[in-house]
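Feature request, filed as a ticket because there's no other form

It would be nice if the structure record came with a short human-readable summary line next to the tokens. Right now we just get the raw output. Example of a typical job, pasted below so the devs can see what we mean:
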Amino acid sequence: MHPAQIRRRLLLAMAGQGFLKAHRDIEGGKVCILHLLDGGEEIIPPAAVEYLVEHGLIDSNKKFPAATFWLTEKGKQFVARRHGKGTFLQPQ
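Raw output as currently delivered:
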């Protein structure tokens, strides 16, 4: 999947289907996991998460060993613009 598709899919999932956590180990390794509300999990490339943070679309609580991410206001607006009315962000 193209990096832009991964980022878009992640934003949509964070907008209603799950939450993102970055798990770090003592050696500094990082694994980003999208935890879906249906119980599933998906590994997300850290570069995709870093891109969204750098562009102000998501932010985190910066906790160790597991940071939790959320959509920023800019991220919510991005999802609403791309997917319009009918999303949970912009009811019909």
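Something like this underneath would help us a lot:
The chain has one domain: 3-83.
Confidence is low (pLDDT under 50) at residues 86-92.
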